[in-house]
Amino acid sequence: MSTTESTHTRAVAAADVVRSTLDEAAQATVRDRLQPLLVDLIDLSLTAKQLHWNVVGPSFRALHEQLDEVTDQYRLWLDSVAERMTSVGIAPDGRVQRVAGDSPADPAPESWAHQSVVVEAMADRIQAVARATRDRLDGLGDVDVASEDLLIEILDGLEMQLWMFSAQQA
Length: 170
Ligand SMILES: [Fe+2]
Hints:
By secondary structure, the protein is mostly helical. It has helices at residues 3-17, 24-54, 60-87, 96-102, 115-137, 140-143, 145-166; strands at residues 55-56, 113-114.
C-alpha cells in the first residue's frame, strides 16, 4: 500500500470512529453552514494580517492595531467553528488550497494600501460575511442549536466590527 493510500485509509477510519449525536442529514446541514464560514474566517484572518502589514496613511497606528485586534478575534472564531464541526463528527477543512478555492472574496491588495482602501476593503468583506452568516443561520437551529448559538455570537461580533470600520469611512 502506498503512503497516500495508507493515509487515505486512516482518514476514512477516523471519520467512522468520531461519534456524533446528530444523524447524517443533520451533519450534512451543519457541514454546509459551518465549512464555508470556516473558509470565510480564515480568509478574513489572513486579509486583516496582510492589511495590518501594508496599511499606510495618517491613521496608520490606529488601523495597524485595530487590524491585529480583529485578526485575534477571527482566529478564536475559526477555531470555535472548526471544533464545533469536530464535536458533531464532521472533519473541518482549513487547508490553504480549500480556502483559496472556496473563498468568494477578491484578493487583498498585494502591497502598500492607503488607509481609505483598507477601511473600505475590511468593511466590504465583513459585511459580506455577516450577511452570509445570517443566511446560514436560517433553519440551523432546527438541527443543531449549539451551532446556531455559535453563529449568533459570531454574527453579533462581525456586525460590531462592521460598525467600527464603516464609521471610519464617514
Ligand atoms: Fe504586527
